[in-house]
Each structure stands twice: as C-alpha cells, then as structure tokens.
Amino acid sequence: MILLIATLHVAPSSCWIRGPADRLGQRPSPLDSIAVQVGDATIKLCYGRPSARGRKVMGGVVPFDQAWRLGANEATSIHVPFPAEIAGVRVEPGTYSLYAIPGAAKWQIVVNRGVERWGIPIDAAVRKADVGAGTTATESLPAPVETLTLKFAPATGGGTELVVEWETTRVRIPIRRVSG
After folding, report:
1. 12 domain residue, yes or no
2. How many of the other CB atoms lie within 10 Å of CB of 145?
3. How many domains, in total, are found in the chain?
C-alpha cells in the first residue's frame, strides 16, 4: 500500500493532511481551518471536525484524564507567526500541534512540536516533543453543539482566545503575543 501525503494550501500557512486531497470530502470528520488577525499577523489553526452522532462526547468519545487530539484525523495544528503564549506556554514563531487532557472541570492544553502526524496515539514518542502545558477551566453551554467547533474570539490587546465547543462544554484557550 502506498501512503500519499498531501498539503491543503490555505494562506497564511498550510494544513497538513494524510492521504489524497481529493478524498477529503469522503471523511466523516471534515478538515477545517480558522484564522484570526492579531495586529499585523495571522494565526491559523487546522483541525478535523467530528460530530457527536448520538454518542456521549465528554467522558465518552473524549475520555476524561486521557490525552485527546483536540479534533479528528490529523493532529490539530496552530501556526503563530510571532513569539506567543498558548495556554501560558511560551513558543517561538512556528507551527505546533495541540492536544488536550480533558477533565470535567478543567482541561490541560498541551503544545507539541510534532505537526505532520496522525492525531493518535499520543504516546511517549509524541510526548517527547511537548513544549509545555497549561490549564483552563471548562464552561457549560446552554445548548448542545453537535459538531466540534473551534473558533477564535476577536483579537484584543495583542491576543485572542481559541474557543473549543462540543456537546455542552466550552473551553477558552488564551493566546497572546509576547516580546521576542
């Protein structure tokens, strides 16, 4: 079997995908990307969007206290074009992957150097590339969200929040520009 690697080109950086680009539409969890302008630069995130499809998500599909790829398929990746803090983790300009260790009341958000990889397993080999981790509280949503949704809050004061919503859970991950 030959494994094809493709890159979906969307400015300002690319979303890495495994497999042929013409098969993306056949995936049950579609690839998506979001971007936000922070000052004169753009932060971009690429992730797979799974749906609940009648399943229990938090504590079920997404088990508590275990590493989760923060999406589906490929590792969720974020490109920051300036020195920044993601969930309190200092990073240099570049592209990183994010994964979470969800809990009922708080999530640990892990920033990792490994980008061009399938999202699971998150094992010792993947964890060797961890840059660091920060913790953020969960919030309850008033109505369920069927499909995992990541979005950026409007940028203010050199920063933004990456907002994660699925089922009845919301998590806000702070991202802020720092001096180099």
Report:
1. no
2. 17
3. 1
Please report whether residue 3 resides in a domain. Answer: no
- Contacts of 164 by beta carbon, 8 Å cutoff, 6+ apart: 70, 100, 148, 149, 150, 170, 171, 172, 173
pLDDT value at 121 more than 70? yes
79's tokens: 């490109």
Whether 138 is in a domain gets the answer: yes
Find tokens 């995130």 and name the residue: 45
Distance CA 75, CA 119 (A): 4
Q: Which helix (H) or strand (E) holds 124?
A: helix 124-127
Burial of 78 (0-12, 13-18, 19+ CB in 10 A): buried
Tokens standing for 170? 């919301």
Polymer length in residues for the chain: 180
* Model-wide pTM > 0.70: yes
Mean pLDDT of 130-134: 98
- The verdict on residue 120 lying in a domain is yes
- Range(s) of the domain holding residue 40: 28-177
User: What are the C-alpha distances in Å from 87 to residues 73, 126, 136?
Assistant: 23, 19, 7
